[in-house]
Amino acid sequence: MFNLELIIFFYLGNILTELLLWGDYFKVQAEKALGGNGELVPSAKACKFCKARDICTARAENNLSLESEIKLKPNEIPKDKLYEYISRGEDIAKWVADLKSLCFGYVP
Predict the structure, then answer these.
(1) Backbone φ/ψ region at 41: left (φ over 0), alpha (ψ -120 to 50), beta
(2) pLDDT digits 0-9 by tens, 6-65
(3) CA distances from 26 to 20, 32, 38 (A)
(4) Rounded Cα–Cα distance for residues 40 and 12 (Å)
(5) Centroid of chain to Cα 96
(6) Is a pLDDT exceeding 80 seen at residue 75?
């Protein structure tokens, strides 16, 4: 029984250490964000909860860059890019809805 207790003790100790390190990391990230120095990494998942999603220049640049990325040399979209374009297109639609909400004061 002693060995099992020891294993549990070390396992829980490792989890606690990982949680404390994770907490330290996010504390630093939160301080950066609150100070206006955070990294802007737009994505459909991240922007969903962001208060600045409708006025974020990083999100705008990310969404507007899709047009320049599509190069229709063979006159068709490559099949390996379809899912990426659909995903980004859905986020563009959400972004436009956020812009409308900001400009016109309504939520679709």
Answers:
(1) beta
(2) 667 677 777 878 888 888 888 898 888 778 787 788 877 888 888 888 888 888 888 888
(3) 10, 10, 11
(4) 34
(5) 17
(6) no
Distance of CA 64 to the CA centre of its chain: 17
Contact call for residues 44 and 91 (beta carbons, < 8 A) = yes
pLDDT at 106: 62
Residues 6+ apart with CB under 8 A from 104: none
Selection from 89, 92, 108 nearest residue 100 by Cα: 108
By CB neighbour count within 10 A (0-12 exposed, 13-18 middle, 19+ buried), where does 105 fall?
exposed
78 vs 69: CA distance, rounded Å: 12
- Rg, the chain, Cα only: 22
Cα dihedral 82, 85, 89, 91, rounded to 10, equals 120
pTM of the entire structure? 0.55
